[in-house]
Specification:
This protein is an alpha/beta fold and 398 residues long. It folds into two domains: 5-218, no CATH class; 224-395, Rossmann fold (3-Layer(aba) Sandwich), CATH 3.40.50. 37% of the residues lie in helices and 13% in strands. It has helices at residues 5-25, 27-34, 60-63, 68-83, 95-112, 119-125, 139-145, 183-204, 212-218, 224-236, 279-295, 340-347, and strands at 38-40, 49-51, 56-58, 241-245, 257-258, 266-272, 299-305, 315-318, 354-359, 374-379, 391-395. It has a six-stranded mixed sheet with strand order 8-7-6-9-10-11, with helices on one face. A three-stranded mixed sheet has the order 1-3-2. A two-stranded antiparallel ribbon has the order 4-5. α1 packs across α2. The longest helix has 22 residues, at 183-204.
């Protein structure tokens, strides 16, 4: 803590003013900042400010030198490191490169939400070119796009480090935050911050802002198989079946149908077996198909395709009660074109109730939308994939 009472008083006043400014202009960030206790510290690892996921740690000497607008942005900067999970998600990635990627992500969010840029941050990040080129990327994507050995090592354009406490030491020793080393603590804080982000989104209400992507990311994810069943049941409909009895009521002598859904009609599964799909991805895909079939007895197409579907070995049809094979032979492993299975169904005059296309998302499609709904399931693949028609879900299974 600073021994200069006048500086500390000025910093305290500036901090209170910055929080009030946020409360008036951006309730989302204000809600998160208000949750974090303040700790004054002259030797802040980040030069100006840092966070340990619980507190805001600020160097009063450096903080009072910033403009009023930058003082607001510094608080948002540290909050965003927590809200975006930078303290909890680095894993084995390089600390400085990860922190730099996080700062580029944060600088773009700050600009998108009409907050002032932080000059010392902008000076450092300028060496990577125009940070706006990364504007549509997540922190993980920015990290992958950065050079393996970022230049600068915490120096400004003038080549000076942080000898005078100007804040350029921010990028030394891994950045402006203290990561959680303990696995249990890291998981707990990550969960707490996701909940805090959701609450802040509720406080902000209908206000617009780039921060909405953080709220979306923090929301609990519906397990893929449940999402798939929800889609199918909603889109196809179903009914109870007398093929099996509901055992819960047999002991009373009551005979009721099971509540297994009976899918009415035909379902076509299209499986991308191109060379970019790994054996593990395909194992998951066929596991999903088996799981689906257990819940939804129906006539089933399984069409394996890379750039083409050339014979009946790649297009298998299973009747409603026909058992799936114990092991599927993988056919294909060539280049990728999404057109082939749609052409196959059209040529065979097959119009399923729904088609489900499993892929990693790396490929092209020139087909027009078919007369049946299509659900694209991207399994451990390109999360930027946008289907030419239909809906898409992304699966990051372990």
């Amino acid at each position: 803590m600073s021994n200069d009472k006048a500086t500390l008083d000025a910093a305290q006043t500036a901090f209170i003013r910055a929080r009030i400014t946020l409360m008036a202009s951006n309730p989302f960030y204000a809600h998160l900042v208000m949750k974090m206790p303040l700790m004054w510290m002259e030797n802040v690892p980040g030069g100006v400010s840092a966070t340990d996921g619980t507190s805001l740690i600020i160097n009063p000497n450096a903080y009072v030198k910033l403009s009023k607008q930058e003082q607001v942005s510094v608080l948002v900067h540290e909050v965003l490191h927590c809200a975006a999970g930078h303290l909890f998600r680095r894993g084995n990635r390089d600390a400085m490169r990860w922190n730099t990627a996080g700062d580029i992500y944060i600088a773009n969010i700050i600009e998108a939400d009409n907050l002032a840029p932080i000059a010392i941050s902008e000076q450092f990040l300028a060496q990577f070119g125009d940070r706006r080129a990364f504007a549509s990327m997540t922190t993980d994507q920015i990290y992958d796009a950065l050079p393996a050995q970022p230049q600068g090592k915490g120096k400004s354009k003038s080549g000076q480090g942080d000898e005078q406490g100007d804040g350029h030491g921010h990028w030394q020793e891994g950045g402006c935050y203290h990561e959680c080393k303990d696995t249990a603590e890291r998981s707990q804080k990550d969960a707490q911050w996701k909940q805090a982000v959701i609450e802040a989104g509720q406080v902000a209400g209908q206000a617009s802002g780039a921060w909405r992507e953080l709220v979306k990311a923090a929301m609990p994810k519906l397990p893929f198989h449940l999402k798939l069943y929800e889609y199918l049941n909603h889109g196809i409909g179903g009914d109870t079946t007398w093929n099996s009895l509901n055992r819960r009521w047999l002991w009373q002598g009551t005979y009721l149908p099971s509540d297994t859904k009976l899918v009415m009609g035909r379902v076509s599964f299209m499986v991308d077996t191109s060379g970019s799909m790994s054996a593990n991805q395909l194992q998951l895909v066929f596991g999903y198909i088996r799981s689906f079939r257990d819940q939804h007895p129906c006539q089933l197409d399984i069409i394996q395709c890379d750039w083409d579907v050339v014979d009946n070995a790649q297009h298998k049809v299973y009747d409603e009660h026909e058992q799936l094979p114990d092991k599927f032979e993988i056919i294909g492993r060539g280049g990728t074109c999404f057109d082939a299975p749609f052409k196959r169904l059209r040529e065979k005059k097959i119009e399923p109730k729904v088609a489900i296309y499993y892929t990693d998302g790396y490929g092209t499609c020139s087909e027009k939308a078919p007369p049946y709904p299509v659900l694209w399931v991207v399994v451990r693949g390109d999360r930027t994939f946008k289907p030419p028609f239909g809906e898409v879900v992304y699966v990051n299974a372990n």
